[in-house]
Write a structure and sequence with these properties.
Layout (H helix, E strand, L loop, with lengths): L5 H8 L7 H30 L5 H7 L4 H11 L6 H6 L14 E8 L2 E6 L4 H14 L4 H9 L3 H4 L11 H13 L4 H4 L7
Antiparallel strand pairs: 1-2
Length: 196
């Protein structure tokens, strides 16, 4: 059964036109940030536990990107939580589905006459976990992973996420603008501690 986020519930009760951009952003951040931080914290703990004994490739796969980048991509890919993919499928990062047996929904527009499918997740947390797996495994993000071991500067790192979108370099610039304009780096500084 698919869990509905607070954001999806609010959006179903209140028309978007009734909310200011500032309100939409605030609700979006309050809805998704705790989940991103939770998954980030778990991945960071796995990374820290393996740091002394694992090889570089494994460490690259395990180390999560800064929260600011994840939050910026979530905002961009889901149109601040207003996209149909997010509302109907908890797909906060626009991840495509390639297998027929993968839970999925169809995009409204076709590409070259073919249907585009995106994954359907049971929860935002499942979407965030899959995002981290994708960043940690995909060949397209090999340079990103390598740089992520050397720096946590989101403005340097986003340059290596250009393959995430057909926009390429423009995508990286837009991510940097979202991070800067919304001061998302404040979420990189201190992550809340895991509950005891």
């Amino acid at each position: 059964m698919m869990k509905k986020s607070l954001l999806i519930i609010i959006l179903s009760l209140m028309p978007l036109s009734a909310m200011s951009v500032k309100e939409k952003k605030k609700i979006f951040i309050e809805s998704v940030l705790p989940t991103i931080q939770k998954v980030h914290r778990a991945n960071t703990l796995r990374y820290e536990n393996m740091k002394a004994s694992a090889d570089t490739k494994l460490l690259e796969a395990l180390k999560p990107p800064p929260v600011s980048i994840t939050l910026a991509q979530a905002a961009m890919e889901s149109a601040w939580g207003t996209s149909r993919f997010f509302r109907k499928a908890n797909n906060i990062f626009g991840v495509w589905a390639y297998g027929k047996n993968t839970p999925r929904i169809a995009a409204k527009k076709k590409r070259n006459g073919k249907t585009i499918w995106v994954k359907k997740y049971d929860s935002i947390e499942a979407s965030v976990k899959d995002y981290y797996l994708n960043i940690g495994r995909s060949f397209a993000f090999k340079k990103f992973r390598s740089l992520n071991l050397k720096t946590q500067n989101p403005y340097e790192l986003v340059k290596e996420l250009r393959m995430y979108s057909e926009k390429r370099e423009l995508y990286s610039k837009e991510l940097a603008q979202i991070i800067r304009f919304n001061n998302f780096t404040k979420y990189d500084e201190v992550l809340p501690k895991a509950s005891q």
